[in-house]
Amino acid sequence: MDNQTSNDYLDNHYISKSNWLRAAVLGANDGILSTSSIAIGVAAASNLREPLILATLAGLVAGALSMAAGEYVSVSSQTDIEKADIEREKKELEEMPEIELQRLAEIYEKRGLKKETALQVAKELTKHDALAAHVRDELGINEISQANPLQAALASGASFVFGGVLPFLVALFAPQNNMVYTLYISAILFLGIMGAFAAKAGGSSILKAVLRITFWGTIAMGLTALVGRLFGVNIA
Questions:
Q1: Taking the CA of residue 110 as centre, how many other CA atoms within 13 Å lie in the half-sphere pointing to its CB?
Q2: CA of 54: how far to CAs of 49, 61, 84, 167, 172, in Å?
Q3: b vs e for 157-194, b when ≥16 Cβ sit within 10 Å of the residue's Cβ?
Q4: SS3 of 103-164
Q5: Which of 145, 198, 157 shows the shortest CA–CA distance to 73?
Q6: CA-to-CA distance for 178 and 185, rounded, in angstroms?
Q7: Residues in contact with 230: Cβ distance below 8 Å, sequence separation at least 6, in sequence order
């Protein structure tokens, strides 16, 4: 199987989308939920639109930057660990190739191959590319699971902005009366759509994803509204 055929094969499976989909969905959902929660908290404490817009915009900008920076740092740490493990594996292959060959054979044997077959497979893969075989089968690192810090950061930051803009527009243009309820209903609608999209893209249950995200979204926004009611000060 050549590289192009292999890539086409992977593209037909949902796992090939897991890295960017996770970052994008997390960012969009967090953008909707965080920005809506801030807006609901302020709307519950104040009857004026100006502080609502200011707080929502500030939350949107700060959240997007925080999400991008946090994702970059997190995924960079994962990448550093992967690189360190690969370097360690390279050193072990140089210092004790026979032991590493046995380790590889044991892995294949545990997966169901006969001992003789497992050893033969390990020898052939070691002859072809020893490091690649150990990185893939011993460390569990492959081109699908390998992290990309910049890609994850951009996906998270951009998707947070996309998600956060939705409740910001509601705060900007929706009637001031019953703003808390308007923000809540619109946020649940946005979250439901995002949950359905993520489930569809990932090949999982749409109903389960929508129920999960709307349930936890309701709890988060409800608690924020309660805090706004209890500790908010109406701005004259």
A1: 8
A2: 9, 11, 45, 13, 10
A3: bbbbbbbbbbbbebbeebeeeebbebbbebbbebbbeb
A4: HHHHHHHHCCCCHHHHHHHHHHHHHHHHHHHHHHHCCCCCCCCCCCHHHHHHHHHHHHHHHH
A5: 157
A6: 11
A7: none
Query: How far, CA to CA in Å, does 12 sit from each of 7, 46, 58, 168, 194?
Result: 9, 50, 40, 36, 22
Helix (H) or strand (E) holding 173: helix 149-173
Length of the chain: 236
CB contact at 8 A, 68 and 160: yes
pLDDT band per the 50, 70, 90 thresholds, residue 4? very low
pTM above 0.70, yes or no: no
Parse the chain into domains and list their residue ranges. Answer: 17-231
> 156 and 107 in contact (C-beta within 8 Å)?
no
The Cα–Cα gap between 192 and 103 comes to 47
Is pLDDT above 50 for 234? no
For helices 18-45 and 149-173, give the axis angle rounded to 10 degrees: 30
d(CA 16, CA 210): 22
Q: What is the distance between the alpha carbons of residues 53 and 59, in angstroms, rounded to a whole number?
A: 10
Query: Any idea which residue has 């004259």 for tokens?
Result: 236
Q: State how far the Cα of 176 lies from the Cα of 45, in Å rounded to an integer.
A: 13
Mean pLDDT of the chain, nearest integer:
80
* Paired tokens of 165: 């803009």
